[in-house]
Design a protein that fits this description.
By secondary structure, the protein is an alpha/beta fold. The chain is built from nine helices and eight strands. Bound molecules: pyridoxal-5'-phosphate. Pyridoxal-5'-phosphate (PLP) binds next to strand 8 and helix 9.
Length: about 220
């Protein structure tokens, strides 16, 4: 498994999907999802020029990223997994982007920690486009209100939206719904699309795709 070659293939596929959608290839940013991978496995991907990475657990990210960030300037680390309130301080301290703001309590704690630490991670709101009970994210019909609360009373600047469509459904309508909510709220960053569906997501306007297994190889089952 050559991660360098995988990375090149993913980059080429992103560029092709962008051109297909009449978009500029550099309008789509690649977030390499390194969850479950060790620092040793991640390092070759950094050496191949990749700078944006996603992790879905705060504690796991803390065990490898402070060191990797110290080695290479310009790393941008994204939290793409659900945030528990007892991990908010650590998340604000470590991550450059928190993609999973999805409820008032967490939004308030992030606002408080940002103030306290003097840090300003970029924030995205996660939308549960499939209204799946087990999945994180604000319900689509509550997204406008939640965005207004974040931007108004809480004074948070929300730069993007993210979604994870249900595994067993055609993702297109979910990507379209996320794009519609973003348009209605003047939001430009759309984090959508993973290894199996990033080309589709780019067709629906994704500006960031989160790709793990297509770069790093399959993960052991969780
Ligand atoms: C694991 C994960 C990904 C990457 O999934 P792949 O199918 O391996 O590309 C993307 N987004 C989130 C939120 C994830 O947890």
């Amino acid at each position: 498994m050559d991660v360098r070659e995988n990375l090149e293939n993913v980059r080429a596929a992103i560029a092709a999907a962008a051109v297909e959608a009449d978009r500029k290839p550099d309008s789509v940013r690649l977030v390499a999802v390194s969850k479950t991978k060790s620092a040793e496995e991640i390092r070759p991907v950094i050496e191949a020029g990749q700078r944006l990475f996603g992790e879905n657990r705060v504690q796991e990210a803390q065990s490898k990223w402070p060191g990797l960030k110290a080695e290479t300037p310009g790393i941008e680390l994204h939290l793409i997994g659900p945030l528990q309130s007892n991990k908010t301080a650590e998340a604000v301290a470590l991550f450059d982007v928190i993609q999973t703001v999805d409820r008032e309590k967490i939004a308030r704690e992030i606002a408080r920690e940002m103030e306290k630490q003097g840090k300003t991670p970029r924030l995205y709101v996660q939308v549960n486009t499939g209204s799946e009970p087990q999945k994180a994210g604000i319900e689509p019909d509550q997204a406008d209100g939640f965005l207004a609360l974040c931007r108004g009373e809480l004074g948070l600047s929300i730069a993007g939206l993210m979604c994870i469509p249900p595994v067993d459904e055609n993702p297109g309508p979910h990507f379209a719904l996320l794009a519609k909510i973003a348009r209605a709220n003047g939001i430009e960053t759309l984090s959508m699309g993973m290894s199996d569906d990033f080309s589709t997501a780019i067709g629906f306007g994704a500006t960031e795709v989160r790709v793990g297994s297509a770069i790093f190889g399959a993960r052991p089952p969780l």
